[in-house]
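Hi C.,

You asked whether I'd gotten around to modeling the 245-residue construct. I have! Everything is below, sequence then structure, no commentary in between.
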Amino acid sequence: MVRWQSAALMLGVIFIVGLLDIKFITWLFFGGVLFFAMQEACRLFRVEFEEIFIVSAISWVAAYFFKEPIYILFLILIAMAAKMAYDKSIKPKSFLPFLYPFASMLFIWSLYIHFGVKVLIWLLVIVALSDVGAYYVGKNFGKRAFSPTSPNKTLEGFYGGVALATLIGGIVIASSSEIGFFASILIAFITSIASVFGDLFESYLKREAGVKDSGNLIPGHGGILDRIDGYLFGSVILYILLNLG
């Protein structure tokens, strides 16, 4: 019951933010997600959150004004590398939270800036259906393990989730844009696969850190990273694919 209540609350907040479609509110919402995701990532990477909080906060504020928010990532990495070389005050692993999840959140924000809330709905549909399809197909037909990193996931579930997300996601993209049907199917297919490996990567990080969940912020679901892991990889791929045209 708690799990379903939490899910309903999350969907309600996402629905309101998407319905309002106000740049500042959307930025503020993603900023809140980023804050907790960075906390959890620092815990997984064993990095002190206080050391990178100010940098990430200032960078997210800057992202609101940048036409190309992705550039901020390179500014951060260059500045940190320069500081590390200058006085060795920055440890190499301090770079990791900016590569995951900060970089992906910049890609999500870039999707919104350049393509609007409609594309975020595409991403939501594709990743959610990848999860739902994998769960139900895997539960009913799964026999072969998908990866040692996540033994509970099955190869049959992987196929089922990607197939469902590709079909429905492709239809959603084609029906709400000028992108052709076959191109829409391809976009949904590649984005779905990326989201699966986003989930797998977070599972890998948790296993390396020896924890079950990335956090306990969301009752019945774990942490923020546990809920957005597929989006963190899927958003990067979707942004790149949309910019190929």
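If it helps when you're writing up: Residues 72 and 86 are 21 Å apart (CA to CA).

Thanks,
B.
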